[in-house]
Specification:
CATH topology of the largest domain: Rossmann fold
Distance between the termini: 40 Å
Number of helices: 8
Low-confidence stretches: none
Strand order of the largest sheet: 7-8-9-3-10-11
Shape: elongated
Oligomer: single chain
Largest sheet: 6 strands, mixed
Length: 355
Amino acid sequence: MAKVEINALTKRFGDTLAVDGLDLVVEEGEFLTLLGPSGCGKTTTLRCVAGLETPASGEISIGGERVVGPGVFVPPEKRRLGMVFQSYALWPHMSVFGNVAYPLRMQRRGRDEITKRVSETLALVRLEDYAERDCSQLSGGQQQRVALARAMASDPRLLLFDEPLSNLDTKLRGRMRDLLLRLHRTIGTTSIYVTHDQLEALTLSDRIVVMNQGRIEQIGSPQELYTAPASRFVADFVGFENIHDAVVSGTWDRGYEATVGDLTLRFCHQGGLKDGEPVTLAVRACHVGVGAEGDTPATVVNHVYLGDQVEYTVENGQRRFVARMPAPNGSLDGQVGTRLRVRIPPEHIVVLEES
């Protein structure tokens, strides 16, 4: 296990600033996820840590050893890390055993040690019975487990994951998430994981770093990001379907009131807001209730059947809200044009800090 320290990391591709002065510390034994949309700089940051990209400036240290800095660039093979790629990157002409053993052979480990270590690692990913199979005979999920075993075989001080589950179907992704979580709890290797999938980030991470345009928007635990996003960008990316600009219009015993168009919403907040102050409010669709009872009249303008849930888009004046409700008996209530009422519990409304 190793602590990773990144200071003022900058990387350009031509005129494009991919990583913009990034500072980040990954604690020893931590599972940290870089989360963000395509082009936000998360993979470039990971590749700089791996030694697959050369930064324009900045410093990177792994386990107290500087691997990037002024006049310093330690090549990837000497950084003592393992990496799992999106494309698996397996050698098709080698067996499962040969793929997993490859980094050990490059390190000139003894034959007995290689056999022992490969067997142990394949057992961890539950592929001990597949050692002599050709990789071309394996399913996508099995190939990804081989790639994971190869990354772990040399007992690296740091594991890097570049969107490793994106090529798998939904069911396999769930199984691989469970496997990764179990392995991290078992071996505890410091890990940096890149994804655009918020479910992967929430499931696997000790901390999540949300990135945007080469910079860090927010760092926090999964619970912190889920319940208290710091900006409109973070709220939108982690699944707050309803984000509205509002104006503070009064107080109540648990917080404040604000007008959103013609609507008045109550929300819980301990900060010192003033009447007339603009704020940005966010709420998840699962916390918006629609039905016969509620505070605000609205009209259904769209609905989507999701199986066990129905997603409604409702409108009041010029404001739209998305609500996600259980589907009663698997049916679809609330057709387009239906008049109903909306209720948003004050405790589920988040005031974004950028307000």
